[in-house]
Amino acid sequence: MKVVTRGLSFPEGPVALPDGSVLVVEIERGTLTKVFPDGRQTIVGRTGGGPNGAAIGPDGACYICNNGGFSWSQTDLGLRPIGIPIDYAGGRIERVDLASGRVERLYDSADGKQLRGPNDLVFDRQGGFWFTDAGKFDSNQREFGAVCYGLSDGSRCIRAAAPMISPNGIGLSSDESVLYVAETITARLWAFELDAPGVIRRSNSGAPHGGRLLFASPVYQSFDSLAVDSEGNICIATLLTGGITVISPSGRQLDFVKCPDSYTTNICFGGADLRTAFATSSGQGELISFPWPYPGLPLNFLNQ
User: What is the model's pLDDT at position 266?
Assistant: First the structure.
């Protein structure tokens, strides 16, 4: 594993660009930052709050899940989010123009309900995007979260599945018939069958949000963000045990790739053949890269 760059303030949301650079958010610093192949960094935009997930939209801009910010603690294992900051004013979805750095607020509510902690997002072929709202937490309580769907022009944002317990990573199958959502606290991976953009077909699993349980971790760990590879495998950044948990579309664990940081929070695929994995080591403030056995699944509006 190669360290691409160091000194980031709790990086997340990596987006590997075709020119070889990687966009990351710095949650603690409130920025969208570009990391060049030689490790240089430049700030693209300043969002404030807590920029979390990132994705390139149909207009070439970077869309951000902003969780509204955390309070922080420095531990022996690195920086950790511990609760709601005193200046918290809600979560939002933002659009960042990569040329000018201009930040535009797209949504701060879904179906009239305030967004609390937007976390991760993925665009479908139609140009809409699925995203998770993980809710907020402190030492005494944790809110339920939801899966939402928004249009990139700012005209519509809905809650599609709720309640969920700390929904985090989100991704689509190659044919976009299945939406995958990882829950952090439960370390569960859920599958949602889709009937249309923004429309979930409820399963008969009995889960209140209508999802189908695909995988539940047999050991104590937490799931963070995810990416899907070209084999259809769901590659989940895994906290506490520190690595990438690889789950097949049928729900079988295929592998666990150990990483150097117990707070490995996200993964994306880049390089000319999409066979380079980039992962955020948030506790250590690093972006790392390593080979992946399969190409990543091309992302709409980025790799196509």
Answer: 98
- CATH classification of 8-291, choosing from 2.70.98.70, 2.115.10.20, 2.120.10.30, 1.10.3720.10? 2.120.10.30
Average pLDDT over residues 214-228: 98
Answer yes or no: is pLDDT of 252 > 80: yes
How would you label 55-81 residue by residue, b for 16+ Cβ within 10 Å and e otherwise? Answer: bbbbeebbbbbbbbbbebeeeeebbeb
Element (H, E) at 124: none
Over residues 5-56, the pLDDT tens digits come to: 999 999 999 999 999 999 999 999 999 999 999 999 999 999 999 999 999 9
Please say whether the beta carbons of 132 and 168 come within 8 A: yes
CA–CA dist 43, 48 (Å, integer): 12
**The token pair that represents 228 in the structure block:** 């899907």
Residue appearing with tokens 């200046």: 87
